[in-house]
Amino acid sequence: MKRPVVVSGAGPLIALAGCGSLELLTAVFDTIHIPQAVLTETTTDRSRLGADDIAEFVRTHARVHPDRNDSVYAKATARVDEGEAQALSLAHALSCAVLMDERLGRREALRNGVPLIGVLGVLLQAKRIGAIAHIAPVLSRMRENRYRISDMLIEKTLRLAGEA
After folding, report:
1. CA distance 101 to 39
2. Would you place residue 2 in the very low, low, confident or very high pLDDT band (cuts 50, 70, 90)?
3. Fewer CB within 10 Å of terminal CB in the chain, N or C?
4. Is-contact 100 87, C-beta < 8 A?
């Protein structure tokens, strides 16, 4: 089965790095693209949880792209932060999905017809393909690291994973 290509925003990288699970991205996706703005946002402050892990992961497993300045980017910057706008623009240009969890960014992706995947979708797919046995421990670590996921989404994800 062919695995999808994705452009990642900052949030999912931070969430997965914080719980030592960045490798799930390589299990789920064939190619991972990262805008320079997202790399800068996630790795400049090396005291940030997971910054070194993200830098190493991107160096070995992702393709970094220069920042863009097209119409998708220009429209998105009015509604979302720089990294999200760059991720949306790149995903649109590459005709692939964007990995993003932030609500405003997800809305903007829908406005631009960019397919969406969230970190919970990555976890579900990782479990389906056998890359992880259980989702619940990863979700617990994300919450311990203060990654915001609603109780409703966690319950739904655990039900879908057969862990409720």
Report:
1. 16
2. low
3. N
4. yes
